[in-house]
Amino acid sequence: MSAARNILFLPGVSGDGGFWRGVGELLPAAWTRRYLDWPGLGRQPASPDVNGFADLLALAESALDRPSAIVAQSMGGIIATQLALKHPQLVTHLVLVATSGGMNVSAFGAADWREDFVQAYPDTPAWVLNERPDLGSQFAKVMTPTLLLWGGDDPLSPVAIGQHLAAAMPKAALQLIPAGRHSMGADLPQLLAPRIEAHIEGA
Questions:
Q1: 76-100, pLDDT tens digit by residue?
Q2: What span, in angstroms and rounded, lies between the C-alpha atoms of 20 and 145?
Q3: Domains of the chain: which residue ranges?
């Protein structure tokens, strides 16, 4: 029987923690799951307390009240990387899916997502479009065991970004999902969940 684990799921710019429920439901029943939303992003109600990435980090820190694995997609990976850097005693494992992790991805051929996103969500706050957290110089300090899951059909986060993170983070391993797109966390839970479980169990 799988030991009890605590999992904190972080979404991307959609702000909807429910993005991860398909994966969460396939993980062992004994594990505790928490799905965090990002206020003011996508269809999530805004909060006066969230006005930038620093506020998202504070929100995630408040949810990290016990040793936990962090599973994060896209923009959420920036927050997850910061959590691992600031709270290594609490972040037991990282799973980063199709994310920049907090670096400039334009050099890797990443498509710009902002115009399409604003068309879909006209009330998107300016800070999420303009702030560019830069964690590249700190990747070598991430000593948390890290699984990088990348889709082979993802123009927003090309495989070259995952390869860069795998080389930069000392305890990171990259796995490719050939048919995966940027939303594969929600689209392909049956492929991601076993990989996440094996990583967290140390297989």
A1: 999 999 999 999 999 999 999 999 9
A2: 20
A3: 6-201
